Amino acid sequence: MVRTRNIGIGVLIVGLAFLGLIFAIGADSAGLIVFTGYSLIISVMLMVITLSSPLIRLPVQVLSFGTHRLGIFRKLPGGWHAEIPRTSGVSCALNCQACELAWVGCPVGMLQRFAIDHRFPFYILGVFLIFGVTLGRTVCGWLCPFGLILDCVNKACTHRYEPPNWLRVFKYVYVIGVVVLAVLTAFVFYCRYFCFGAVLGIFPYWLTWYTVSWMWLIYHLGVFAAYITLSYYTHGRAWCRYFCPLGAMLALFAPFSLIKIKHDWKWCTDCKECVRICPMGVDPRKQNLMFRMECINCGRCISMCKTGSLQFSTPFTLDTPSKSPTPEGVEA
Amino acid sequence: MSEGAGAMKAIRRTGKRIASARLDPFVVARVRFVLFIAALMCLALAFYYADDWFVREFATYDWARDLGF
Question: What is the extent of the structural domain holding B45?
Answer without folding.
Answer: 2-58
